[in-house]
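From: lab user (bench 3)
To: helpdesk
Subject: output format question, protein + pyridoxal-5'-phosphate

Hello, I'm new to running complex predictions and I'm not sure whether the block I got back is the full result or only part of it. Here's what I submitted:
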Amino acid sequence: ENGSRHVLKPMDSEQLREYGHRMVDFITDYYKTIESFPVLSQVQPGYLHNLLPDSAPDHPETVEQVLDDVKTKILPGVTHWQSPNFFAYYPSNSSVAGFLGEMLSAGLGIVGFSWVTSPAATELEMIVLDWLAKLLNLPEHFLCKGNGGGVIQGSASEAILVVMIAARDKVLRSAGKNSLGKLVVYSSDQTHSALQKACQIAGIHPENCRVLKADSSTNYALRPELLQEAVSRDLEAGLIPFFLCGNVGTTSSAAVDPLAALGKIAKSNEIWFHVDAAYAGSACICPEYRQYIDGVETADSFNMNAHKWFLTNFDCSLLWVKDQHALTEALSTNPEFLKNKASQANLVVDYKDWQIPLGRRFRSLKLWMVLRLYGAETLKNYIRNHIKLAKDLEQLVSQDPNFEVITPRIFSLVCFRMVPIDDDEKKCNSRNLELLEAVNSSGKLFISHTALSGKIVLRCAIGAPLTEEKHVTETWKVIQEKAKQV
Ligand code: PLP
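Helpdesk reply: Thanks, we reran it on our side. This is the complete output you should expect:
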């Protein structure tokens, strides 16, 4: 058949049925055999260039041809984040429920920027964010019935950026536009680099970013006295403190800042207080871990990534704000081509005004599926199981005289290292990096590292949906064996 006369039928339902089944089979087989792949991809940079043609095909190919290439050319370059032996960074959970929600969202193919463009998308998002706010026992002012409300962002980085822009514009409305150079941001040095990026984008002067030192004396939590001193100094210098980012579960060591004390300082100085609980927020649905967000009632905004440890396929970052108008005043636009009765009459939420892009996917479907197909009690036990596995690993590490646990574990992250020999910290750091390289290049597992007070620390974050006790004990054996070799 002459390809140029081929009539494209991209929405052929029967083709979807056939190919869709085949794709689901492919993914199911992938999950069944996921442990047979090296967890961390071992390919060299540029590997794919030599395997694929230089230009796109002129004529249709079959799904079998594509899936063959996925098997032989793509999978070798995939790092298997859903492997039960993936312990690097923080997890990025997939699940059957999340996957189905993602599929449904792709199938409906809507773009829900304003309420009118798909009322269900906006309304379901408001409802599931309220559901989750209630599971976390967040203060009433974060629920959508009043001035506050929740919204799904693509990432924690976007969540932090939009609230910083809201806070910036709020303060500039009273201080005057020319005061941008006086605005000061505060955080501990353990805060994710997403905050620095937000400052760069929001035009905060780099010399006005106060990165306050946290150390082992507080288990890497920010000391309120340090914040108070910095704020007082800045006020004396005629600067304007305007934004504080607190952490519940830092990226390096899952440290928890004292929210209530920080919030008090923020409030008395009219500073917007944001709490980043990207990873650890999920654990706080369990009553016994809720204490770690005590003080969140003093925050202006709060974010947690459902795509990390809450079985909701990437991307799904949840953000709650106390004052939705601060967001919409900073981010809303009202072009003629988007005008509609519901928006004009102020009857509805238009989420385009709560985020950076205009277009938005129907992401609440996957969170809704997760909550409905699993239920809160099962989700709490899912979290508890990972925390128990981490506790077991922490114990194994502490029983081995060649290793030490670096910070006390709270959630499911274990931070440890090989101990120094003859107090030689420099050598110890390079040995730990060598160990990291050795375990990761074995393909059997994947862990990552960080630095705490100049010490190279290995991070084992338990939280992949397929991880069981045997994976953790086997991982520890591999680490011990490789340690003998370095
Ligand atoms: N905040 C914390 C505490 C994180 O651990 C991470 C990522 O691991 C982020 C923010 C950034 O997340 P995202 O990729 O959603 O922007």
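A quick orientation on your result: DSSP finds 14 helices and eleven strands in the chain. Let us know if anything else is unclear.
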